[in-house]
Amino acid sequence: MPFVPHTETDERVMLDAIGVSSIEALFDEIPAELRNGQLLETPSGLSEMSMLRLMSERASQDVIGLSFLGAGAYDHHVPSAVWDLASRGEFLTAYTPYQAEASQGTLQLIYEFQTMMCRLTAMDVSNASVYDGATAMAEAILMAVRANKKSKSKRLLCAGNIHPHYLEACRSIVCNQNIEFEVIPYRDDSGTLDLEYLETRRGEDFAAIVVGYPNFFGGLEEVDQLTDWAHEEGMLVVGVVNPMALGLLGPPGEWGEQGADIVVGEAQPFGIPMASGGPYLGYMCCRKTIVRQMPGRIIGRTLDLDGREGFALTLQAREQHIRRAKATSNICTNQGLLVTAASIYLSLLGDRGIYAVASRCHTNTVALLDKLTQIPGVKLRFNGPVFHEAVVQLPTSAKTILQKVAEEDILGGYDLGLVDEGLSDCMLCCATETKTDEDLSMLASALSRAVGGHSADI
Amino acid sequence: MAEFPEELHYLESHEWARVEEDGSVTVGISDHAQDELGDVVFVELPEIDSEVIAKQEAGVVESVKAASDIYAPVSGSVIAINDKLEEAPEIVNDSPYDDGWFFKILPTDLDELKGLLSAADYKESCEDDAH
Known about the structure:
The structure holds 2 protein chains of 2 kinds. Chain A is of the alpha/beta class. Chain A has 13 helices and 15 strands. Chain A has helices at 8-18, 48-59, 80-86, 89-92, 104-121, 133-147, 164-174, 195-200, 223-232, 320-323, 336-372, 398-406, 437-452, and strands at 66-67, 125-126, 155-159, 180-184, 208-213, 236-241, 262-266, 282-286, 298-303, 309-314, 379-380, 389-393, 410-411, 414-415, 426-430. The relative contact order of chain A is 0.14. Chain B has a single domain (9-109), classed as CATH 2.40.50.100. Chain B is 21% helix and 32% strand. The model of chain B has no long low-confidence stretch (mean pLDDT 93).
């Protein structure tokens, strides 16, 4: 399938054929007040040569070094086979063809992705993926409000320690639908949600509770208690879960007495490199009873007229090409190529492989925290269990110290002052399975040197 | 050929309404509607005791081809729903006027039925759609 843009002549011929004066005129029926103005901030196009020059200049500003950054995107080893296979022409054309069933291979691959995500999360159903973790959370919120028929409100409780970028993206996406968020504060000692605060909200009408697992600070919430509390209160439970953590931790489908209702998150850890924020891969699972409120595509396995096994798009009737304005979402597509990579990654590693990666991430992080907290003035900000990330408190501004560490080509962590002024002396550190003991020691000694200059402050 | 029972009231959006002896109004979709939709795979019904408003959405019927809203023919409160449709939505195809009913309303104003179509008028409107 060639992807060649239309020429002006092509456009003129098509417009003449339908008797319309300009492309602009095709949008006349959209009221002016609903339309964005000119995109003034968007520069005009560049030639290939100038674009490559600009991009290589920008790329050279990156510190290419040892990275202990996490905060939503994680530096895992990607086996070479993942992208060797995913880059094959048969997979690389990411889009589901318009007659989807003609591409049985694509549908089988998505079906297998769905199956693996269901097994990891212990949920009944997975869709074919959505854009990324943040939009997956927004879709989960919209879905929960639709699915919770008992709740008359469009309010929900959202963990105050969920990724702040996710919360921002969700507010942007749902702000026009009169959905209100109430933020649950986290405890100053543990960084986890304050269950005592929740007791003060008993008896109020909320459609759902949204909980991060691990939370933004890498900590593990008391998900069993949270889930049971929310179900007693008639809320749906939405888990925003790092799927890699499920190699070690109990699946959301088994939280509390009944399990979570909707589970979403970012599947970037599965074979997708860290790349300037994307493209990444949102996943979305739910219990079967509310599957008809789930947005996006779902591939089903079925039999054809001759009794042979085949795959088909299922539950399409609620997508926007059929249901228009009343569709479950304005998005009815999936991240085809990244689903391919994640499926290959999961197949290569298998359940034991995922367990091994998750375990190594955890032990590396524990070892790193042990080394870092031996430096005078450096301590853990929160107590309580973590998966592969934790908040480290420094004697002075994290920004200053991280800059010094970066001079040794080490990205020591994420400066939490960027998202919360109250945490400007804190950094979020992550050590994945890619880090060796030497790597951990390198960060510890670089940090020790960087902090040393401030020893008088301790 | 689709059936259009005389005793029922119809909406152009293909719901039927039947006034029962106890004054309640039973609602379903017409034979013509189930035929146009094809195999019904899911029915979403209103909650018992919820209030519905005439000509506004009260549920959804979903076939392999489309998901369509069900409109309430009259305003009132929902006093019964046909639970069987949850497990066996195909009843709507097999028996649209009897076993395939959707829900019953205790109407606030039965006069609202006067605004609905008779069997003959509804049949005509279906035939017009076909042209």
